[in-house]
Write a structure and sequence with these properties.
Blueprint: E1 13-17, H1 26-38, E2 42-47, E3 54-56, E4 59-63, H2 71-89, E5 93-96, H3 105-110, E6 114-119, H4 123-127, H5 135-155, E7 158-161, H6 164-167, E8 175-177, E9 198-202, H7 211-216, E10 225-228, H8 236-241, E11 249-253, H9 257-265, E12 267-272, H10 286-293, E13 297-301, H11 304-313, E14 316-319, H12 324-336, H13 338-354, H14 359-374
Parallel strand pairs: 1-2, 1-5, 2-4, 5-6, 6-7, 7-8, 9-10, 9-12, 10-11, 12-13, 13-14
Antiparallel strand pairs: 3-4
């Protein structure tokens, strides 16, 4: 093991499990898995997709296979495939990243395994706004998920969360908070003197993430929005394409991590105008910190937590995320005052280097692993 580790010299095998996230998910692969591999663990990432097995950043990525059928059938099939693959790996720690995998956590515990639940989002709250779930079923399902999480939290050995609000729902003695800050190694090409011009949004494209007012803000602007991501709701792409402002959108679809970093390297202004949903207000969106790491000025939702970060770093402008006019005015101001935008970008980069970086969070994860493996 790496110098300073508290565990034995025998290399420990770690299995990261996800049936929902893509294999190149930033938090799962780039941060958690690659960080553990760099520290000397043998790390395998089990995913459910149709791609070939591969080795990325020292992490062995294994495809457990996809599944067909309706949503319920696909979920059950994925659980069976994941459990079989997980048992086959015979890992020392199983670290899972999806709520549905709570259903196999007890089975892994029965086999005497160490299990960690990584809670990326406030799922009980999210269910309340899932349009594909019938309205009358949302609250009962939300309460059921909360009850299952409470039960599983008593069974698993460790819990990793991303915000204080989520962490407060779980036993404090086994819970840590690792926020979605930036892995600075991804942004080592940063050049403070580089001239940039793009206005960018990168990430999942949904109404809750502000795509409609974002597009509408460009209806009267003589500039373009570079839109990188995937539409995640039925009919939303069609709706956006009929929204005034779409004529000024350069939609480039889903992009690899390498391409995203290259896009951000050219970005002058980054947009993160998530809507007030009850959970986003308390989130630490990774795209906010990625924009800052790339030296872009930020236009962000005017939530108290976000304003504290942005005003504290003097790295952007907070706006009403539901107001296309407010977003438009902020963009126009920064475009008309490039020196201000440049200064905000420099300030954001400095704040990430000093505070909002993954390295500051990874130490907490390493401590949890060392503690669990030494028991």
């Amino acid at each position: 093991m790496v110098e300073g580790s508290q565990v034995s010299m025998k290399i420990k095998r770690i299995a990261q499990l996800t049936t929902v996230h893509p294999r190149y998910d930033t938090r799962i692969l780039v941060k958690t898995s690659a960080s553990l591999a760099a520290r000397g663990f043998e790390v395998v990432l089990l995913v459910a997709d149709s791609l070939e097995d591969e080795l990325v950043s020292g992490v062995r990525i294994v495809n457990i296979g996809g599944s067909k059928g309706n949503r319920i059938v696909k979920t059950l099939n994925r659980l069976v495939l994941m459990f079989r693959a997980a048992v086959k790996e015979n890992a020392d720690i199983y670290h899972f990243h999806d709520p549905e995998l709570m259903l196999i956590a007890p089975l892994l515990k029965l086999r005497g395994k160490v299990v960690i639940y990584d809670v990326h989002e406030d799922v009980p709250r999210q269910v309340l706004r899932k349009k594909w779930i019938p309205f009358l079923l949302r609250r009962p399902i939300s309460l059921l998920i909360r009850a299952v999480e409470s039960l599983v939290s008593k069974l698993v050995d460790g819990i990793v969360t991303v915000t204080p609000t989520i962490a407060s729902r779980f036993p404090s003695e086994k819970t840590i908070e690792t926020r979605n800050y930036v892995d600075l190694k991804e942004f080592d090409s940063y050049e403070p003197t580089k001239s940039k011009s793009l206005i960018t949004y990168v990430g999942g494209i949904t109404e809750a993430r502000g795509i409609v007012p974002m597009v509408s803000a460009f209806a009267n602007l003589p500039v373009n929005l570079t839109l990188a991501g995937k539409f995640q709701e039925s009919g939303l792409e069609k709706k956006c394409k009929s929204t005034p402002g779409w004529q000024n959108v350069n939609f480039i679809g889903w992009q690899s991590r390498k391409s995203i970093v290259e896009i951000l390297d050219e970005t002058q202004i980054g947009l993160v105008v998530l809507q007030a949903t009850g959970d986003y207000e308390e989130a630490f969106p990774v795209k906010l910190f990625e924009y800052m790491a790339a030296g872009a000025a930020v236009i962000a939702s005017d939530f108290p937590l976000w304003r504290e970060i942005i005003d504290g770093a003097e790295c952007g402008i907070c706006v009403d995320p539901a107001s296309a006019t407010a977003i438009e005015e902020a963009i126009a101001y920064l475009k008309n005052n490039p020196d201000v935008a440049k200064k905000m970008g420099l300030n954001g980069r400095k704040a990430v280097v000093e505070n909002y970086n993954w390295e500051s969070q990874a130490t907490k994860l390493f401590h949890m692993y060392d503690k669990l493996l030494s028991v």
